[in-house]
Amino acid sequence: MLNQKLLSEINKDEEFTLFLLINKYETKTSKTGSSYLSLELRDKSSVISAYYWENYEGLLKDIEQNKIVKVNGVLQDFNGLPQIKIKRIRVATDEDKVSVEDFLPVSQRVLEIMIQEFNDVVNSIHNQYLRKLLEEIFSGKRLNDFFNVPAGSNWHHAYLHGLLEHTLEVVKICELMCEIHPEINRDLLITGALLHDFGKTQELNYDASFNYTDKGKLIGHITICALEVEKAILKVENFPEDLKNQLIHLILSHQGKLEYASPVIPKTLEAIVLYHADELSSKSNAYKYAIKSEMNKNGRWTKFIKLADTSLYIPDVNNEFNNSFEEDSI
Amino acid sequence: MLNQKLLSEINKDEEFTLFLLINKYETKTSKTGSSYLSLELRDKSSVISAYYWENYEGLLKDIEQNKIVKVNGVLQDFNGLPQIKIKRIRVATDEDKVSVEDFLPVSQRVLEIMIQEFNDVVNSIHNQYLRKLLEEIFSGKRLNDFFNVPAGSNWHHAYLHGLLEHTLEVVKICELMCEIHPEINRDLLITGALLHDFGKTQELNYDASFNYTDKGKLIGHITICALEVEKAILKVENFPEDLKNQLIHLILSHQGKLEYASPVIPKTLEAIVLYHADELSSKSNAYKYAIKSEMNKNGRWTKFIKLADTSLYIPDVNNEFNNSFEEDSI
Amino acid sequence: MLNQKLLSEINKDEEFTLFLLINKYETKTSKTGSSYLSLELRDKSSVISAYYWENYEGLLKDIEQNKIVKVNGVLQDFNGLPQIKIKRIRVATDEDKVSVEDFLPVSQRVLEIMIQEFNDVVNSIHNQYLRKLLEEIFSGKRLNDFFNVPAGSNWHHAYLHGLLEHTLEVVKICELMCEIHPEINRDLLITGALLHDFGKTQELNYDASFNYTDKGKLIGHITICALEVEKAILKVENFPEDLKNQLIHLILSHQGKLEYASPVIPKTLEAIVLYHADELSSKSNAYKYAIKSEMNKNGRWTKFIKLADTSLYIPDVNNEFNNSFEEDSI
Amino acid sequence: MLNQKLLSEINKDEEFTLFLLINKYETKTSKTGSSYLSLELRDKSSVISAYYWENYEGLLKDIEQNKIVKVNGVLQDFNGLPQIKIKRIRVATDEDKVSVEDFLPVSQRVLEIMIQEFNDVVNSIHNQYLRKLLEEIFSGKRLNDFFNVPAGSNWHHAYLHGLLEHTLEVVKICELMCEIHPEINRDLLITGALLHDFGKTQELNYDASFNYTDKGKLIGHITICALEVEKAILKVENFPEDLKNQLIHLILSHQGKLEYASPVIPKTLEAIVLYHADELSSKSNAYKYAIKSEMNKNGRWTKFIKLADTSLYIPDVNNEFNNSFEEDSI
Amino acid sequence: MLNQKLLSEINKDEEFTLFLLINKYETKTSKTGSSYLSLELRDKSSVISAYYWENYEGLLKDIEQNKIVKVNGVLQDFNGLPQIKIKRIRVATDEDKVSVEDFLPVSQRVLEIMIQEFNDVVNSIHNQYLRKLLEEIFSGKRLNDFFNVPAGSNWHHAYLHGLLEHTLEVVKICELMCEIHPEINRDLLITGALLHDFGKTQELNYDASFNYTDKGKLIGHITICALEVEKAILKVENFPEDLKNQLIHLILSHQGKLEYASPVIPKTLEAIVLYHADELSSKSNAYKYAIKSEMNKNGRWTKFIKLADTSLYIPDVNNEFNNSFEEDSI
Amino acid sequence: MLNQKLLSEINKDEEFTLFLLINKYETKTSKTGSSYLSLELRDKSSVISAYYWENYEGLLKDIEQNKIVKVNGVLQDFNGLPQIKIKRIRVATDEDKVSVEDFLPVSQRVLEIMIQEFNDVVNSIHNQYLRKLLEEIFSGKRLNDFFNVPAGSNWHHAYLHGLLEHTLEVVKICELMCEIHPEINRDLLITGALLHDFGKTQELNYDASFNYTDKGKLIGHITICALEVEKAILKVENFPEDLKNQLIHLILSHQGKLEYASPVIPKTLEAIVLYHADELSSKSNAYKYAIKSEMNKNGRWTKFIKLADTSLYIPDVNNEFNNSFEEDSI
User: Is some CB atom of chain C closer than 8 A to the CB atom of A123?
Assistant: First the structure.
């Protein structure tokens, strides 16, 4: 595990030496005709653009996307955005003992505990059809992808293991609703909660950056999940037709509205609970990280956030009544 | 084949004797306390409410939904809507030689010709993966349902064989677009056109009235179709992944907008063509029948039509330049 | 406490004798010129229209809105809606020992337990400004109204003590979110949860039927609550300005979107949590009761529900995997 | 009062010497590594960015936001936007006899006349409760703020005394409507017109630039005004409850639609008049200034204006029939 | 001029004898099989349905739509709506000295005064092209229609001379805006105000009831007006092209938004003023009449009004501060 | 006809010598104070920005917008967009034998064939009123404009003769619909199809670049067309009123929805067919060119396209089943 300062901790005008991952790179020409190397570099905490004016031709034959480089540079400000002026740069070697995962953001929860919680939830399902279906789906490469994939490319739970973390939150909220409403079919709802975003395992790449796959863009994670469930059910003998329809309905309707890309809207008690539990988990996480990522800046307001349609208020942690964020900023 | 006058041809205050299908029935009490039998009766052309005041108790043990009765009655007007006052009524027997299909609306095109056109289209597909997929899907009970089901419960092509008629129209429009744009992948587009509404075979009942099934309401014909295609592709060896994604994209996006219940919007040339070809076929049919069904009434405007968000103008067929509707009113 | 059969348990054509509350009444003339008394009667379970043809003039001088009557009648069906044909009717007397509350729907949770939970939550607030504010607001007549008022006139928690039940659910969901996100300012969020719908105490009448007040229609419960909090804060010495702004923001933004009548949208982490917690509690309750109220009818679907924009699916409790609703139908 | 050329009158490539206000400033690094001082400077007429390459370190310890500087520079064009190249710059001293207000845009109406009109309107209110309320609200610092604050940060009446100017226009329009409709409650409507945007005194800062306050963003001027009115009414003995509800309704509903941030829509005759009078005053002012600020440019169309969702047509003042703008361009 | 009690002044159960206009009529059959005559009758104040059970066959050959009858009857209530039980009825003769206009609602302003105001406005236009255009358009039958037609079928200014009354209000509001903003091209704006709804002269019938014409429904008053102006301009020599475009733009954009059926949105200062002046005049009038028509009923709220999307508050005229409506109720 | 390499065929860093058209030009100053000439140059295939640092003052007196220059330069990349660094440049002379049309994009269909098809369609109209109207409209300069103008500035059929090409496609689709639905009034529909976008002849300039005219922005092509048809009908004796209303309705409603700038929505069978035929032709063309213009780039997706609200998928022409685009890329 790589142990170095985070990009987010570097101050303006500070000089640093860090391993960083190449997101993309390109040669460019300035207006005055000189050419230089333009890169986008990342670590766990940030993605920042960089440039290198020195004779970079020797470097060009070695670097490629998703390779790791060791960089000595200075953090500058360009039109209000941070930018790295590279002084020296070399490609990392085996002896540097660094790997791609060291540079991707990752859930702050402990993976093993999340897996334990996940297994406990699966084991709590009494309905044998649903239990077998879950065991069929959550196995082999599919299970591995499910444990690792982020829940999104940059909005909520947008880090490794993010889908698992999000799924467990939705399950917990649903379990609370089952306590309040004994009328809810718990096995059905919890199975739906476990599966609702499973299609993201095929919708998103997470090997070096978080991008949507062709299949993800053409089909979408909602339908991908329905197709996987339909095929898995073929392997569960005598799976009841009515139960299948209700379960697939849960998956299809979990985004709640047609304009949010659900092809049907919630028509069962379990479906309306799942929709709002999903909203609660995803929006809370998204707003928290949007605020955290700008807490160290000046001012009480984040930049305008398109998905929230507003700037967010950053509480003043020096006020006694506001200090919750204080101790565990990113 | 039953040969009798159509309900739509009966005039106000006219007495008639006709076989009719019972859509539903119920005993009711009038405000003054008398009880009577209230029914909804249909033939190919109309659905009209009816009532029967005489001692109907004997009748009650014989009638049920979707049974055929022979009715002697008078057509009256109640608050602007037609209503049948039944004088005599009896349940039809085998000797009457009538069957349920005699009372359902049916496409005005000849079924055999449509089936021939359909087979010709399937045979025109050169891509072997798509050809095999079509042969897999369009077989057995599935093919039979596809030939018979209406395309909707009451808007466009809402009659027996309606889905087949609609599908062939969409295919013809798509073929014209292939002539205009050689860049279109014809095999892909025509396969998409043939399959786009196939899910309606499971979304709609058409045995005696046209109703949505539980599965239809919980899952919807778009996802039903995607699930069927996914399973059928399991039986076509080596079906290319990219081709599958593009085909399922065609099915998912054919309603064009998220708010029209497509979970993805059109992202390929073929998808945008299919969406608008479907709109053109369905809206033209819907508006034509909405106008036809009110041509014999007074006035130049139909009643307000919710799905069109307007009344429609009924051309005056006595004007020489307007007489297209004249010779073939329903 | 009145102990009699519920209106919802009476079958069609069944004769019954029950105490019922008069929602409204009017004399009417039939088309044939006779006049009669038309009433709307209610008990805890239903509101049903009724009529009385006998010489009702003597009755007229005694009855008025919100009075209780003893009715002997028969349940009939009029155009698909239930209707009571009254045979005999008299105004209730003191000796009948019935009171208005016996005829209003009421929360199924035990009031004392809810009050205990409420007090525990208030006592858990450590911030002294917020604690004092809560004690100021929740006192005297205001507290009494808060414990009794429904949370709405006919959608969610639309019964006596409904606001208290709803508030406790929102608090529980918020507490779960505080466990997941230690960054949340718990005292602020829980105070906001306790107060968010407090304005409904002035927005709704609940003495005999649940109607909106003039003030409720002209001002709305969101602004009413903000005005009450502003005035109560005048009585808490040195209440911090920033804390006040954040708290009033929580109240104003809790409906989440401008088009849902919030004058500002959520701009803090606490505000986004409160909005979705409120949605989860209110929608779950509303859908549950919408399904429950039609479970005894034929068919697997409720009538179309405008606020849900759909019919809801009624699970078949004879299926082993669906039987959660079974034991505690209303 | 400062007497110097306006920034809007400087031509491209013209050299000038002017006092200007620092809106903000920052040191930046160019791509080629040199550092320079980047500023945003304003006078009454414009806000323009500027840069200074010379040895600016000495300057840095003296300048700060909202300070005034004397600048010798040249107006250049950078990517279609004006930009000042600073040659010499120094901080203004007491002897320069300039003050911040000299650099903020200001209403073109004479303040004293507006105040006289305002007083006349207040004095015309006969209803003693409303009269006392107005005298309570419009006093002390509140009155001073009301006379000075702009009505917005950059759309309509976005200059000093702008709220007063806007308020008087709305009053005049409302008075005309009272002449047309004697049914209107004049005292109520005019009081509502005087108060409708009063909350902007707390929503906007206007000391050196026009920015939204934290309270403004968290609460909004509509609710701020309602809270102030509620508290002021506490000081007016026996203020009738019905009158208070109608008045607060006027304030809350004056933006006309929920999606425009009014928590209730207009439900009284006075409310619908106030909403449209406000629209008429604000939109006319906004469009006039949007056109004026681009009249000297080439072309008959302004740039695209987001809040108008279009470019605006600039009439050709050389056409005799179009010359209204001619004599009094800004 | 007919001098008789208004239908709106008749109380429930009151017997009366009045001349009334037949809006429509029809023979109907009751559920019990008897037939009767159903009519819709109107005077200036109301439209009410009526029925006549006696032997009406003799009457049938004499009555027709838009004929006047003398009716002796009783006002009853049927499902909350008023209904006339006719006892005696006969067709009016020449000797009765009644005419259709006596039964249509009419502006409460004096026609001659409005015509004088209209002429003064036309005469105030200095631009000779616009002046000639106005004289061309407002002449002969077109002028007569303009003076008589209502401004709508049932929303605002929905009575004879309503378009003239509405036009003069819009002109007055525009003139006030010209005083506030000397930059406005007064001749252009006032000409636009005079013409903006002129197309309604062809969009609406007003001979006996206010209905939309076929042309009105197919083309709409906005385009009708543009077509008339275009043709009239052919008769004004050398009408400047730019002036024509700006004038037609005023007409086309006066409904302000595409979704309100304007094919272009306001892009000039005059256009934005005209749009909001039209809104202010029409909405004020509509809300006033909606409130007035229910002032005599019980309760402080009108029925739900679809075009206002709300019920409206009826002020209590017994409150001293609310009594503006008092003296001149309809 | 100019015969030279297309701009779209030049590779990055390639040096070239080409005649190009000046779209616009301007002198600018760089941040370091040097001044240079900035231009926008075009040929049939692309519009690219360019810059020239050498002593350009001599050039300035000769160049102007829409003049042709001969350029020797290099294609570079600036922030991901292509940019021309000009080495040498001179204004073209008569001897160069180049003209403006050589530099505008043009339909790929043969003009003479399109004109023949157009004439055949006009000749197929039997109704003499419509035939004469078409001959009146399509004559002289109007016909010439109709043959040359593009159908839009940059979305569909955005090239010379584009309106003619688009019109013929719409006619073909309408003719297919006439075959399917004999109820359609063919003469009316085809006349509407020929005229529907005719207003674009006045809405768009196409002399050197494709821009909207003042009239186009103030009136819009829909109303322009209606005005032209109205005036042309004045010259056709006895043109039936009903036919005129239906025809103008077709023109007005052909964009299908109010929010798409149609002032009325389709209310006839012909209008709904025309709307969807127009959509099918325009969207297919727009998507095809959007894909084609990016086929040579890396990646399977185009850039985000605002009017499609998505990126588009670029099929892999190396897949046998996808090769339709292969042979005729732009």
Answer: no
Task: Tell me the per-residue pLDDT of E272-302, one tens digit each, with 9 for 90 and over.
Answer: 999 999 999 999 999 999 999 887 666 899 9
Residue B330: what pLDDT?
37
Do C217 and E313 make contact, defined as CB atoms within 8 angstroms?
A: yes
- A90 and A33 in one domain? yes
How far out from the chain centre does Cα B27 lie? Answer: 30
| Domain presence at residue D2 | no
When divided into structural domains, chain F yields a total of 3
Residue F162 and residue F308 share a domain: no
Inside any domain, residue A2: no
B2 belongs to a structural domain: no
What pTM did the predictor assign? Answer: 0.92
| 3-state SS string for chain D | CCCCCCHHHCCCCCEEEEEEEEEEEEEEECCCCCEEEEEEEECCCCEEEEEECCCCHHHHCCCCCCCEEEEEEEEEEECCEEEEEEEEEEECCHHHCCCHHHHCCECCCCHHHHHHHHHHHHHCCCCHHHHHHHHHHCCHHHHHHHHHCCCCCCCCCCCECHHHHHHHHHHHHHHHHHHHCCCCCHHHHHHHHHHCCCCHHHHEECCCCCEECHHHHHCCHHHHHHHHHHHHHCCCCCCCHHHHHHHHHHHHCCCCCHHHCCCCCCCCHHHHHHHHHHHHHHHHHHHHHHHHCCCCCCCCECCCECCCCECCECCCCCCHHHHHHHHHCC
| Residue-range definition of the domain harbouring residue A308 | 294-327
Question: Which pLDDT band holds residue B323 (cuts at 50, 70, 90)?
Answer: low
CATH code for the domain in which residue C79 is found: 2.40.50.140
- Mean pLDDT computed over every residue of chain C: 91
Asked if the ipTM is above 0.85, the reply is yes
Q: Choose from D30, D31, D215 for mutation: most chain A CBs within 10 A.
A: D31
Whether residue E31 has pLDDT greater than 70: no
Q: Which two tokens stand for residue E117?
A: 């105001």
* Per-residue pLDDT tens over the stretch D77-108: 776 678 899 999 999 999 999 988 889 999 99
* A129/A248 same-domain check: yes
**Who contacts F113 (Cβ-Cβ below 8 Å, separation ≥6)?**
none
Q: Are E303 and E223 in a shared domain?
A: no
pLDDT band at D328 (very low <50, low <70, confident <90, very high): very low
The yes-or-no verdict on residue A327 having pLDDT over 80 is: no
**B202 and A CB contact within 8 Å:** no
What contacts C20, CB < 8 A, 6 or more positions away? C7, C41, C42, C43, C68, C69, C70, C71, C103
Span between the terminal Cα atoms of chain D, in Å: 18
Chain C positions in Cβ-Cβ contact with residue E85 (cut-off 8 Å): 29, 33
For testing contact with chain C, the best of D188, D202, D213, D219 (most C CBs within 10 A): D219
CA distance E24 to chain B (A): 13
Q: Which of A130-144, C69-83, E117-131, E179-193 shows the lowest per-residue confidence on average (mean pLDDT)?
A: C69-83
Residues of B in contact with A259 (CB under 8 A): 258-259
- End-of-domain residue from the set D103, D123, D138: D103
The whole-number average pLDDT for the span D149-170 is 95
Give B301's contacts in chain E (Cβ within 8 Å).
217
The tens digit of pLDDT for each residue in F20-33 reads: 999 888 877 765 66
CA distance to partner chain D, nearest, from residue E311 (Å): 7
**Residue B250 and residue B269 share a domain:** yes
Identify all chain E residues contacting B30, using CB atoms and an 8 Å cutoff: 31-32
Interatomic CA distance for residues B208 and B210, integer angstroms:
7
Does F24 touch chain E if contact means CB atoms closer than 8 Å?
no
pLDDT of residue F329: 39
